[in-house]
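Sorry to interrupt, but I need a hand with the structure work. It will help me judge whether the discrete encoding reads sensibly. Write everything out right here, beneath this request:
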Amino acid sequence: MLARVWLVAMALALAGCERAASGFDDPRADPGDAARVALGERVYVQHCASCHGAKLEGQPDWRRRLANDRLPAPPHDESGHTWHHPDSVLFAITKNGLVPPLAPQGYETDMPAFAGSLSDEEIWAVLAFIKSRWTDPEVRAARAHRSAR
């Protein structure tokens, strides 16, 4: 039941974020900016790879809840769902953790908030790095279509 409530809340939050954002892709997370991508890779390796994988592969069985009812860290490569979300949502989750309005009140996750340890510039750089690894033409086309809406 909690999973269904969470899915509905996430869908509503994502719909609101997508409409509120000036676009799906934010220029601060530009995967074509080599300096930003290089910074993002360094930050990712130091702060994100231990959970999301050195190759952005996520944790095993990332869709299956653990014994503590939390979900494992999802992949950030093209096999996951990260690329489906607007940059503004990815930034908010990274900065603040998975909290309302992006999750129901009281939702428990192992995803920490990085507001106290990473600057906004570093968070945007990590997103640029992650996006630079999405090379599948269908993923790029889907992102471009969503950004154009």
Observations:
- The helical segments are 2-20, 34-47, 49-52, 87-96, 120-132, 137-148.
- The chain has a mean pLDDT of 87.
- The radius of gyration is 15 Å.
- The chain is about 50% helix and 0% strand.
